[in-house]
TrEMBL record:
One Pfam family from the record: Cass2
Name of the protein: AraC family transcriptional regulator
Signal peptide: none
Every HTH araC/xylS-type domain range: 8-106
Organism this protein belongs to: Lysinibacillus irui
Annotated TM spans: none
Domain PH: 1-12
UniProt keyword annotations, A-Z: DNA-binding, Transcription, Transcription regulation
């Protein structure tokens, strides 16, 4: 089963169990995937977390019931997974910009999020430049934070993490420490297996460094792997996001590899990331 087929199967599973308290572990198990890789792939292809998708779909269906039935608002709140009518009203207003009572009175338009259908796009008009490399284990040094991917915390918080690093000047320190074979500052996404529960990642802003670790920085060994390295051309963040989507919607379905599920890298050389001529890379371990 390809990753595209797996995502669609997972969407179908979520739709069949929308009114149940399903977990990301159950969804990933349905498609024989690790939690880490499933949630990464889903977010890349859909621009939302699994929790976001479930919440948007439930509130879409709740709005339809408000319009089409006389069911009490408190009963709809419980039906769609909210412990109190107040929590339901807050979430409903955030999505629809109306309260449930206003929606029932048809006092404004509603925001409908339809069931997702994932499609493979094999255009061929935009060739992808990549190479396969074998690399021994290496050390990265930098800073890291742990994020919950189930509720979309990683999507919201990682850009803020980069902003802090850039404003503090730590990015320049990392460029100076860069003496390994991968040239640049790295954004490294690693499954976190120490939380006692699944669905967390460690995200590093770091660099490939040989030698001692500066005070205030952490170190991690990236294992020896076979990597597929993709070229990314164009200004950030769009060029990087578009390449990730192309990798999972076009490259993996067309090639005999699959992600190994270990650390994935974004590589940013020391240049203006917003320039139209900006160059960066994506490194994905494969098997």
């Amino acid at each position: 089963m390809s990753w595209i087929e797996s995502i669609q199967k997972a969407i179908n599973f979520m739709e069949e169990h929308l009114l149940e308290d399903i977990t990301i572990e159950q969804i990933a198990q349905e498609v024989n995937s690790s939690v880490f890789h499933f949630q990464r792939t889903f977010a890349i292809l859909t621009d939302m977390s699994i929790a976001d998708y479930l919440r948007r779909r439930r509130l879409t269906l709740a709005a339809q019931e408000l319009m089409d039935t006389d069911q009490k608002i408190i009963d709809l709140a419980y039906k769609y997974g909210y412990e109190t009518p107040e929590a339901f009203t807050k979430a409903f207003r955030k999505q629809h910009y109306l309260t449930p009572s206003e929606a029932r009175k048809k006092q404004g338009p509603l925001q409908s999020y339809n069931r997702l259908v994932i499609q493979v796009s094999l255009k061929g008009a935009e060739p992808m430049k990549y190479k396969i490399v074998e690399k021994d284990k290496f050390q990265i040094v930098g800073v890291k934070r742990t994020y919950n991917c189930q509720n979309g915390e990683n999507i919201r918080e990682i850009p803020l993490f980069w902003q802090e690093v850039n404003q503090s000047g730590l990015d320049h320190q990392l460029y100076q420490l860069n003496n390994g074979s991968i040239d640049g500052v790295l954004g490294v996404c690693v499954p976190n297996i120490k939380q006692g529960q699944k669905g967390f990642i460690d995200y590093w802003i770091a660099t490939d460094h040989v030698g001692d670790v500066d005070e205030g920085l952490l170190a991690m060994e990236v294992p020896a792997s076979k990597w597929v390295v993709f070229e990314v051309h164009g200004p950030m963040p769009d060029a990087m996001q578009n390449t990730w989507k192309q990798i999972y919607s076009e490259w993996f379905p067309s090639n005999p590899y699959e992600p190994a599920g270990t650390a994935e890298l974004e590589v940013y050389p020391e240049e203006d990331p917003y320039s139209p001529d900006s160059y960066s890379e994506i490194w994905i371990p494969i098997k």
